[in-house]
Amino acid sequence: MKKFEEKTLNTKEIYNGKIIRLQVDEVELPDGKISKREIVKHQGAVAIIPVTDEGKIIMVEQFRKPLEKSIIEIPAGKLEAGESPDVTAIRELEEETGYTTKRENLVFVDSFYTSPGFADEIMYIYFTDKLEKLEEPVEVDDDEFLELVEMNLEEAFEAMKEQRIHDAKTNYAMMYLKASGRLSNA
Amino acid sequence: MKKFEEKTLNTKEIYNGKIIRLQVDEVELPDGKISKREIVKHQGAVAIIPVTDEGKIIMVEQFRKPLEKSIIEIPAGKLEAGESPDVTAIRELEEETGYTTKRENLVFVDSFYTSPGFADEIMYIYFTDKLEKLEEPVEVDDDEFLELVEMNLEEAFEAMKEQRIHDAKTNYAMMYLKASGRLSNA
Q1: Which of A65, A116, A151, B44 has its Cα between 20 and 30 A from that of A3?
Q2: Which GO terms describe its molecular function (chains A, B) (predicted)?
């Protein structure tokens, strides 16, 4: 699938940071014209939808500097180089919520590019309803400040309306839970 | 909602482009430590889920340079400064598909931040199943090369599995159509 491919004439790295890199590519379009593409490079991310025995979805509230406010999201984190997404899913679950699960209890839900017009970030999403409380909390990244939030699906849809839940992976996750009927007995 | 607010100590603009700006903020964390936040600024975007009388979802296939491949997406485009998202929705529908609709036939579905960890991009999503074919095609952006694709919901879920549909707004849209039962008679 390389329809309408854009040929790279040159690539200029603008910035190489901790989370993202930015490059600007000069490209030749299908009609021979020249254009520029601004491209954010990202390692990829993994999110998990953790559901308790009581049918509550465990989420985290955290301040998001780009938005200048806090929102409530399903647990997620960056994929490390060479890491399998299910490993990331369990690590982020442990670090952010204090729960864990086994690999065989992870259900792969979906993956998608978050913003394919300007970024290569891919998001993997897992689900689990087999949670165990960790006896010892694990260390979190030292620049992350989180608060746990538990909601049933109805409360989560209410929070979406109020835009306290307001990001692609979490809104997708709620729509997935509704469409799949996974929480219908909750 | 400013829980765990991060105070900006200074902001450095790294890049100011056509689609995005990049800045790096030095912030003071809730525990007094200093950290950096890489922030991509974006005008915001609007997508529309156009459904024909026959229950087909109209989408566009286009090459996405950050992914180095083509994917199939619901029609979408950037919000212009000061523009109301429903105006953008109709413009992008017209430019990308050759169909139009009236403002009163747009159903607002949802909005969400695409990648709140590093970007402020917000995505608005509309739905319409009242489409009219334009008699005259409208001009498209001269660096966009698109191909129309029509699928029913079952075909779209198949394309998601094959990752020909593979981005946040479109995967969300399909999950929404499934959850809402809007295409159940299709």
Answers
A1: B44
A2: hydrolase activity
